[in-house]
Specification:
The protein is of the alpha+beta class. Helices cover about 45% and strands about 15% of the residues. The chain is globular.
Length: about 160
């Protein structure tokens, strides 16, 4: 089947699933007390990102999977919560969420931000801080405004 036809079928399946479930869940309205499968596939949509030639409606901007192997100790909600961040503080950890990293990088690019210089430097905050000659605390303080921007953007 050609790619275009596959995409049309994919969106039709998502539409059927949405109808069966009674709607979609948004990351900003989700929490760990909701009924979540232990593992699965998730799809992110972004407001304003619409499909152009595969029908009417929002376009999938990210596909992720979590805990697909039997016996995995990870969980789908734990992964989604990394993408979501800490709701009470609007904080988060872009080293633990490639989605946070990519969206934060896009915000930096769009707004022509130079800071924080540590954004995306290493896969963990300790290594990033060491590579920049900062303490971990200094680096986290410098990254906080962009982590908050991400958290508020996804609402």
């Amino acid at each position: 089947m050609p790619r275009h036809a596959d995409l049309i079928r994919f969106y039709a399946v998502l539409g059927s699933l949405e109808a069966i479930l009674g709607g979609t869940r948004t990351l900003s309205d989700s929490n760990g007390r909701m009924s979540w499968p232990a593992r699965g596939v998730y799809f992110f949509f972004e407001p304003g990102e619409m499909r152009s030639d595969t029908g009417i409606g929002p376009r999938v901007v990210r596909v992720g999977t979590q805990a697909l192997k039997a016996g995995s100790r990870a969980s789908l909600w734990r992964r989604l919560s990394q993408h979501r961040g800490i709701t009470a503080t609007d904080g988060g950890n872009h080293q633990g969420s490639i989605f946070r990293l990519l969206v934060g990088t896009a915000i930096k690019t769009r707004e022509r931000l130079v800071e924080p210089v540590s954004w995306g430097v290493a896969s963990d905050s300790g290594a990033a801080a060491r590579s920049l000659g900062l303490t971990r605390e200094q680096m986290l303080i410098a990254e906080r405004p962009l982590e908050v921007r991400y958290s508020r953007f996804r609402e």
